[in-house]
TrEMBL record:
InterPro entries: Bact_solute-bd_prot1, SBP. The keyword Magnesium does not apply. This is Sugar ABC transporter substrate-binding protein. SUPFAM superfamilies: Periplasmic binding protein-like II (SSF53850). Keywords: Signal. Pfam families: SBP_bac_1.
Length: 413
């Protein structure tokens, strides 16, 4: 049922936006802007509220309400709101949905709403441009790294592999040994949970595997690099017990796992009096070292009721000063701020070398998680196609061929 709702919402959004003009005219009186987000993290909310309060001090007629929506159904919920005439004024947009939002006409260009736009890294804005215009501001360009519970490793008599020894093979060996010795879990791909397959890009890119070709027209799941990567992953889950099996929940930040793949925004979940930890880049795969980036963009919705006021708030929210504040959780796209000194001021929990190795080098060398037009339908098809893989004895090659059979017609649209 969720698949049907997701597809219907996206189709309704595209149809509504191409057929109609903008939202209601602004009254000129007091305005309450609604900005949808996918984070209810108290530290994130506190920072957003502080920025909104600072804005209200000089714009007393403008209030900002941050509407946190569940992550799993975030895009579906936003598109349903738009199609139903209840569009937010501002929306955070996941990288996977960016092609649909940018191409559909849903967003208002932001070129005049961003201070010092020349400072934005071209690699960070590529996904958010159409015909040379900036349709969304990539407020977060955040590489994935691996958080390691070094106390748990020590308890299991394990040490963290370093340098050339930090590979997927060695990482899963340590994770499996630690899980077996401590009764905890090994390595958790956070937010995957056998549902959001795009987070597995943090693993399969180590084999130089791709979900589809660069032009988005050819499926890559049945190609040798992906078959090798998924074979490795399947063995790590069901044979080596290095990753939690389906249905097993483990929160690294509650001390329930040895390692987790996550972004630096998750560092806020670490407790000052908790376990000792380390943050390192993704392990090298057979194709060498690599980095994977998750992006979040801010867009002003044409169908919102307060587009002009929303653009003004976005200009303030994305200013260099506020970008530096947001860098505590969300690495900025501003080249002038992508240095260890600036990021260290906003991230006191992280060491400068961690920020350099994971964040700065990752942004410079990384690739963004998979995205494609029609992402809702494609992602559901991939998820359903991969379901038979998540059990012992699965035919990895056969399953992956089935994924391509399911999505090739969608890629060709």
């Amino acid at each position: 049922m969720r698949k049907a709702v997701s597809i219907a919402a996206t189709v309704a959004l595209l149809g509504a936006l191409t057929a109609c003009g903008g939202g209601d005219a602004e009254s000129g009186g007091p305005v309450t802007l609604r900005m949808t987000t996918w984070s209810a993290n108290p530290d994130h909310v506190k920072l957003f509220d502080a920025i909104a309060a600072e804005y209200k001090a000089t714009h007393p007629d403008v209030s900002v309400k941050f509407d946190a929506l569940p992550f799993e159904n975030y895009t579906t919920t936003v598109t349903t709101q738009i199609a139903g005439g209840n569009a937010p004024d501002i929306a955070w947009i996941l990288e996977g949905a960016a092609p649909d939002f940018v191409a559909s006409g849903a967003l208002t260009p932001l070129d005049d709403s961003i201070e010092d736009a020349a400072d934005l890294a071209p690699t960070a804005t590529a996904l958010w441009k159409q015909d040379g215009k900036l349709m969304g501001y990539p407020f977060s360009t955040s590489p994935f790294g691996v958080f390691v519970n070094t106390d748990l490793l020590k308890k299991a008599g394990q040490t963290l592999p370093t340098g050339d020894k930090w590979t997927w093979e060695n990482a899963t060996k340590v994770a499996a040994a630690t899980a077996a010795k401590t009764g905890k879990q090994g390595l958790v791909v956070r937010d995957f949970d056998y549902k959001d397959w795009t987070n597995l890009a943090t693993v399969f890119r180590g084999w130089d595997a791709e979900a589809w070709s660069a032009d988005g027209k050819t499926c890559g799941f049945d190609q040798p690099p992906m078959v090798d990567a998924m074979t490795f992953l399947h063995k790590a889950i069901f044979t080596d017990k290095a990753l939690p099996a389906p249905g097993v929940a483990a929160d690294f930040f509650a001390g329930e796992a040895a390692m987790t793949i996550a972004q630096i925004s998750r560092a806020s979940l670490l407790k000052e009096d908790g376990f000792a930890w380390e943050l390192v880049p993704l392990p090298a795969g057979p194709s060498g070292s690599y980095a994977v980036i998750g992006q979040g963009g801010i867009g002003v919705l044409k169908k919102g009721k307060n587009a002009a006021a929303a653009q003004e708030f976005v200009k303030f929210f994305t200013s260099p000063a506020n970008s530096e504040k947001l860098a505590q959780f969300f690495p900025p796209p501003r080249q002038s701020q992508l240095n260890a000194d600036t990021l260290a001021k906003a991230n006191p929990l992280l060491k400068p070398e961690q920020l350099q190795d994971v964040v700065i080098d990752g942004i410079e060398n990384g690739v963004v998680k998979p995205s494609h037009a029609g992402s809702a339908e494609i992602n559901q098809a991939v998820r359903s196609g991969l379901d038979p893989l998540w059990k012992p004895g699965a035919d990895v090659t056969g399953v992956l061929k089935g994924v391509c059979t399911a999505i090739n017609p969608l890629l060709a649209k």
